[in-house]
Amino acid sequence: MPKILVFAGSWRPGSMNTRLATLVAKKLAAAGAEVTQISLGDYPLPLIDARAFDNDPPAEAKALAALVEAHDGLFVISPEYNAGYPPALKNALDWISIVRSGGPGLRGKVVALGGASAGSLGTYRCLTQLRTVLELGFGALLVPEMLAVAGADKAYGEDGELSDRRTAGFLDKVVARLIKVAAMHP
Fold first, then answer.
1. CA 56 to the chain's CA centroid
2. In which band, very low, low, confident or very high, does the pLDDT at 186 lie, cut at 50, 70 and 90?
3. Are 111 and 151 in contact (CB under 8 A)?
C-alpha cells in the first residue's frame, strides 16, 4: 500500500480544515494506506524570496521536503482565503520545491485536494487555483476529484464523520482514487 502524507493549509486551533485532515487520515488508514498526518505549523518557514536560491534552506524546509520525498502521495486540505488558497500553504510548497531540486517541486507525487468552509461552495474556488499551480508549477499528478466540504461548521456528526451521505461517499471515492493512483505511479 502507498504511503500518504496528509496536511492542512491551516493550523489554527479549531480549524475546520485540520478537522477534515484528521478525518481524511483516518479514512486513508482504514483503506489500507500508510498515513502520516502533520501540521504545517510545526514547520515555521520564513517568506520565500530570491535569496532562497543563494542560501542554505532552513532546517524546517529540509524536514518538510524529506517528508514529501518519503511518501508516494499527498492529500492537501486547504482553507479558502478570499477565493484563494492561503499564502502559508504556497510558501511551504515553494520551500519544498527549493529543497527538492532537479525539477518541479512535487514531481513524481500523486496529490488529492480537499477543503472545508462554512460557505455554500466549500473551498471549491481555491481548490481550482491550487490544482492549476500544483500541476503546472510543481509537476504534481492530481487525482481528478476534489473534495469541497460546504457548511463545514455543521457538517460533522457526533462521531466525527461527515453527516451528509453524498459528501461522505465522495470523500471515500477520493481516498480510494488517491490510494489506487499512488500505488500505480512509480
1. 25
2. low
3. no
SS3 138: coil
- Model pLDDT for residues 5-27, shown as the tens digit of each residue: 999 998 888 899 999 999 999 99
- Looking at the DSSP assignment, which residues form a beta bridge with residue 112? 75
14 phi-psi bin (left φ>0, alpha ψ -120 to 50, beta other): left
**What interhelical angle do 87-99 and 59-69 show, nearest 10?**
80
Burial of 95 (0-12, 13-18, 19+ CB in 10 A): buried
For 39, the grid coordinates are: 501540521
Beta strands 110-116 and 141-149: pairing type? parallel
For the question of whether the overall pTM of this predicted structure is more than 0.70, the answer is yes
Task: Report d(CA 150, CA 79) in Å as an integer.
Answer: 11
